[in-house]
């Protein structure tokens, strides 16, 4: 009886202490939001403790915001639901000395970072290679993407069987170099505002530069055939997708290596291709819309506010998500994955990726979160470790401000540090 009484007393004291902490934190955050800084922008915040199910703070949490790259949290969740630990590289079928291969959206083949060569190793022994490229129903650009970004590194075209990350990599240290090398003669040394012609593979590189740049390529069957013929001379032909199923699957890179790269440096191309790759589990006809609809109607049917979700990366301003939805998905991830693996996939405040210059801890990191930035919009959603050892899940979204993003982050940091120090 005494043991039971002590247990009840402990629970009551525990909840009393957290109730006091929550009240103090709420008062502090409310005071921040009442400052003139937040008068002319739209802000939402939800902070949740998954251990005791305490909603620590809620402000416009059920309203819709433009999420930018916070969208990648949903892409990560989808990939973890559908894709294996070793990613499918492509599907194939062998008929004597002929091999037919079909893309599944995997972006790692000859990518500047991953430099995967699984396809080359498998195809070399065969006399003839049939390459199927037209099984993707998505347009090369996502809905609502800014057209003027066509020459920027963060906006490559989507495709069923990417090569070289679908970008031309140009450097000029000792001499002008390009990958793939076949497009070297398409590079003009010129001081141009743009890095490529609008709809052609004519590239511009400032001769004063010494760094390496990546410029999206304009993709078509002719160009891709030339790349393959350069790799495997007189072997490769592009074939039409007939709908016939290819039963064998080749695998290449560990899934987490791709997910981490997508999240930490906020790689839009990887995010788009990861969604396409996840759709290959449902059908040989690749469709990011199909996989988005599938996950929303099944694993995420319990979301309190269903999002408007149109791409994998968050490049589109058509996307609309609420802080509540992000916290719900982050909570699902927190419950499903080991803590070390989960936190390893996110940028770390003051230490890595897009958060390297922001949200530094005192003696150790306290923020593991995904940022999202498009003009006049900045959001941050993820996990916060308090000094008392609690793990909080939060989504902090800011839209339509006209101040600098740097100032927005500074104000956000005051609130996040208050949570860290006082809860």
Automatic annotation (TrEMBL):
What family classification does the UniProt entry report for this protein? Belongs to the peptidase S13 family.
InterPro entries membership:
Beta-lactam/transpept-like, Peptidase_S13
Q: What is this protein called?
A: D-alanyl-D-alanine carboxypeptidase
Q: Is-annotated flag, keyword Magnesium? A: no
Q: Which residues form the signal peptide?
A: none
Enumerate the transmembrane spans: none
The scientific name of the source species is: Algibacter amylolyticus
Single GO biological process annotation from the record: peptidoglycan metabolic process
Cite a single GO MF annotation: serine-type carboxypeptidase activity
State the source organism's domain of life: Bacteria
Q: Which UniProt keywords are listed?
A: Carboxypeptidase, Hydrolase, Protease
Which Pfam families does this UniProt record tie to the protein? Peptidase_S13 (PF02113)
């Amino acid at each position: 009886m005494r043991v039971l009484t002590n247990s009840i007393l402990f629970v009551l004291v525990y909840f009393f202490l957290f109730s006091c902490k929550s009240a103090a934190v709420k008062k502090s955050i409310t005071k921040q939001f009442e400052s003139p800084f937040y008068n002319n922008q739209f802000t939402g915040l939800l902070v949740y403790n998954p251990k005791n199910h305490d909603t620590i703070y809620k402000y416009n949490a059920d309203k819709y915001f433009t999420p930018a790259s916070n969208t990648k949290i949903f892409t990560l969740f989808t990939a973890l639901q559908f894709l294996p630990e070793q990613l499918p590289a492509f599907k194939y079928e062998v008929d004597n000395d002929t091999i037919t291969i079909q893309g599944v959206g995997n972006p790692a083949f000859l990518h500047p970072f991953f430099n995967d060569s699984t396809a080359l190793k498998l195809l070399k022994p065969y006399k003839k290679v049939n390459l199927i490229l037209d099984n993707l129903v998505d347009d090369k650009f996502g809905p609502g993407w800014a057209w003027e970004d066509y020459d920027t590194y963060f906006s490559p075209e989507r495709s069923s069987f990417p090569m070289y990350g679908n970008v031309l990599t140009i450097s000029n240290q000792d001499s002008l170099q390009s990958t793939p090398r076949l497009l070297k003669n398409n590079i003009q040394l010129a001081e141009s505002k743009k890095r490529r012609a609008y709809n052609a593979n004519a590239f511009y590189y400032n001769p004063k530069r010494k760094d390496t740049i990546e410029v999206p390529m304009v993709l078509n069957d002719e160009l891709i055939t030339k790349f393959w013929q350069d790799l495997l001379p007189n072997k490769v032909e592009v074939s039409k997708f007939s709908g016939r199923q290819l039963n064998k699957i080749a695998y290449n890179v560990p899934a987490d290596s791709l997910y981490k790269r997508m999240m930490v440096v906020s790689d839009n191309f990887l995010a788009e291709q990861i969604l396409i790759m996840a759709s290959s589990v449902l059908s040989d006809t690749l469709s990011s819309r199909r996989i988005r609809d599938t996950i929303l109607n099944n694993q995420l049917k319990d979301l309190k506010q269903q999002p408007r979700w149109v791409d994998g990366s968050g490049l589109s301003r058509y996307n609309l998500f609420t802080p509540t939805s992000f916290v719900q998905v982050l909570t699902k991830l927190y419950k499903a994955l080991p803590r070390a693996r989960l936190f390893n996939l996110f940028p770390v405040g003051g230490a890595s990726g897009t958060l390297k210059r922001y949200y530094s801890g005192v003696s150790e990191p306290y923020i593991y979160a995904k940022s999202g930035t498009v003009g006049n919009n900045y959001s941050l959603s993820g996990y916060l470790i308090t000094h008392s050892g609690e793990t909080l899940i939060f989504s902090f979204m800011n839209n339509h401000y006209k101040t600098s993003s740097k100032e927005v982050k500074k104000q956000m940091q005051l609130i996040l540090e208050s949570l860290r120090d006082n809860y």
